[in-house]
Design brief:
The chain contains 17 helices and 23 strands. The protein is an alpha+beta fold and about 600 residues long. Among the domains are: about 210 residues, FAD/NAD(P)-binding domain (3-Layer(bba) Sandwich); about 120 residues, no CATH class. Strands 7-6-16-17-18-15-19 form a seven-stranded mixed β-sheet, with helices on both faces. Strands 9-2-1-13-23 form a five-stranded parallel β-sheet.
Amino acid sequence: MNPSEKTGARGGVTRRSVVRGTLAAAAAATAVGITGAAAASPLGARAAGAGRRVAVLGGGIGGLTAAHELAERGFAVTVYERKALGGKARSIPVPGTGRGGRLDLPGEHGFRFFPGIYQNLPETMSRIPFPGNTRGVRDNLVVAEQGMAAWKGRKLLLPTSVTKPANFTPPLLLEYFRSLAIATGAVPPQDAALFASKVVAFFTSGPKRRWGQWENVSYLEGMAADRLSPTGYTLLVDALITTLVAAKAEKASALTMALMGEAFILSILGAGPYTDADQLLNGPTNEVFIDPWVAHLRGMGVRFEVGRTVTGLSFGGGRITGAAVTDPAGRTSAIDADWYVLAVPVERAIPLLNPQILAADPGLRGLWGLHTDWMNGIQIFTTAPVPIAEGHVAYIEQPWALTSISQGQFWRNDIAAHYGDGTVVDCLSIDLSNWDAPGVVYGKTAKQCTRRQIVTEVLTQIRRSLPGGEQALPDSILHSWFLDPAITGEGTSAVANDEPLLINTVSSWRNRPEAVTRIPNLFLAADYVRTNINLATMEGANEAGRAAANGILAAAGSSASRATVKTLYEPPELRPFRLKDDFDYSLGLPNQFDAIAPSWP
């Protein structure tokens, strides 16, 4: 069933008025439009003197962030994007589905998720004007009150906020996390105790142990998963890693997964600067985030060249001397700029790094050691609401590692009134994270299935997990579906993914570059850059874009203020324990709270 085959929106945040001038500026910027190229504004042209021309190669979150920071500081910026602005974060209208003046149904690469640990991206969002919002598009974030794990017909509710322990001392944390695990009613007590010891061992690990030990073993080994029961492994190890990112427990860096787990836990506890743990947008991503951002950048003089694929970088005299871009007709043109920001994904950056560039910065060779995997979205459009949970849902122990969100309950606009043919009232947006495991219907991997077979498998796996089975998602309410068009050749040996996801494998940090390269006018703004968030996310790309902009400001000798870069929160109560742990690590001793210390390398 494709979009052409037939089969209560919640308001979100309170709308507030803003000053008339801001509204007028936002309206003027929006009127410019969002596609094609536009000339720089007179203000941008005046502000940009010699040595202030920037070419941003890639229009995803990293590239748009770098453009934003530099345009605010008077640089003349042009963004070149091969496909669509917003990159993996964009929404994708389903062609030909709008009727009666309605917009096309909103598909997407994968559903959006803005956890409370994000600090840099929300700050950028607050600087993007949106009519009626006091904090720009940031006010388009709404809170998911409670997540859920669906497992063997059971609902395991996952609170997005809980009462804190009395303080963050390790003994109290040990009991706290053990009790939380047991409270699910499914985790055996011995597994809960081991899990709690591993969580607290990481919480109290100092930087030396984190980078010397946790980074260099898999999440499987770091969590002593071989000591867990099958149920404990499923709920405490596999469920996290396969639903959070498209990764395998035996390959993913223990540091990356544990660091993100720590941050999410602190967010749920309301610690430090973190906000609500589970947030999402109150409408399609382009409508309430990307399009207003692009319009705002245009208003600052940023030019956009969409449909331009970067095919080469020229090097001479120790610098980048130009770039080549090709349009959809195959015509190639040259880019001449003072500064270059490479903001394309790792698999597209690698072919651009010629031997001269690699000789000038040998550290860039590490990109060949990075890995990607598949994590793509499917949207199931329905003629009745599908309120499975007031937040994200993980379908535990299903082979394709599925997660979903019922979007209608969070969107400010009524879906039937604004999108499609008027009969669609909800959208179940699903991420498929394991494309290599055999399914339950056809016994084939997702890569081996046709598009229709993929949807049949996904629906079957969801129904196997939910209480009520097929009654929870009956065929009678299915309208149509949309599979990420980045997947091509499905069901054949030529199957491919045009937009894979970076995976942080064991010891991969050493292969990741900084945003500022050894080439004085080349900077990187993508999710493979070393960042505090240490995971391929919108937040990581945003942080990289800020770092790239700061690098250009420094190299240009600019007196403008630097873009702020916020780091992950560290509870001050744990600092003494982390200092002691670094001392213990230097002596070759295990962490004092690690019940089963692994044989670290």
